[in-house]
Amino acid sequence: MIYHTLNNGVKIPALGFGVFQVPDPAVCEKAVSDAIAAGYRLIDTAAAYMNEEAVGRSIAKCGVAREELFITTKLWVQDMSYEKAKDAINTSLKNLGLDYIDLYIIHQPMGDYYGAYRAMEEAYRAGKLKAIGVSNFYPHILTDFCETVDIIPAVNQIEIHPFFAQTKALEVMKEYGVQPEAWGPFAEGKHSIFTHPVLTKIGEKYGKSAAQVALRWNIQRGVVVIPKSTHVERIKANIDVFDFELTPADMAEINALDLGHSEIVDHTDPAFVKMIHSLKIHG
Ligand SMILES: NC(=O)c1ccc[n+]([C@@H]2O[C@H](COP(=O)([O-])OP(=O)(O)OC[C@H]3O[C@@H](n4cnc5c(N)ncnc54)[C@H](OP(=O)(O)O)[C@@H]3O)[C@@H](O)[C@H]2O)c1
After folding, report:
1. Distance between CA 76 and CA 137 in Å, rounded?
2. Tally of domains within the chain
3. Most CB contacts within 10 A, which of 91, 192, 269, 272?
4. CB 106 less than 6 A from any atom of ligand 1
5. Which domain holds residue 199?
6. The whole model's pTM is what?
7. Which of the residues are catalytic?
């Protein structure tokens, strides 16, 4: 495993394990246990995934020292204000069974996320959160945010994969010292990514799959990846990406797949924003 050093000195693994769309507690608990056994140390959950407790049970029984693990969770839009964020942070700590969270992220730039971030800054200073960050902050939003807040976010987790390379977003993150992290590193299976001819052909040179090539491409761009799978063989294969290196020509060929937009979500669509606000995770 390789690590990046965040802008506050905290180390983050270059590859972690995502648990979005794993609502069944038993499935989630087993997947996280399989991932930790396979060598993953970063687990990416969210209050909105409704599986923090299952992640917490896997952590409790994994046998790996707490300081070796890097646990991320996220603040949902329903709790996006100074007062609500204070409670939400404590709820996530309780759900996960932890006394600190390694990285706590604003899940979406919606609602009163400036107020919520002040609560996160306080919890960070109190040692409850080792690093604080953001997600889905497109370049103009991240720029405004970094020009406003006291503590520059350590991480911005956004959709990044070969079909949405996010070159401009990476430039802005670099300017502010924000670590990029890719959600949907497999484009959630879109674009026939697992059998894509370009990724497959490149992988054949190294005895690697299209999936492994897609992860390696992001890793070589300095982007943290958090692939999700509930299949143990895939979980193992997805972390087996540190024994080969893509050439500049491989990288250029993959860069050429960029469509320049997402085909998963559209944060500029009012219907999407309304849908996100309508998702309630508690009473
Ligand atoms: N911040 C945000 O707004 C946001 C949004 C989305 C996701 N995320 C985070 O990012 C993580 C990853 O993104 P994601 O889960 O949306 O999508 P993803 O990792 O791009 O893709 C997951 C899909 O790929 C399949 N898969 C995984 N490895 C495979 C392999 N080696 N071969 C074939 N199929 C494979 C999985 O199926 P199986 O499980 O059946 O193997 C699943 O259907 C999430 O789990 C979550 O932690 C954050």
Report:
1. 14
2. 1
3. 91
4. no
5. 3-278
6. 0.98
7. 49
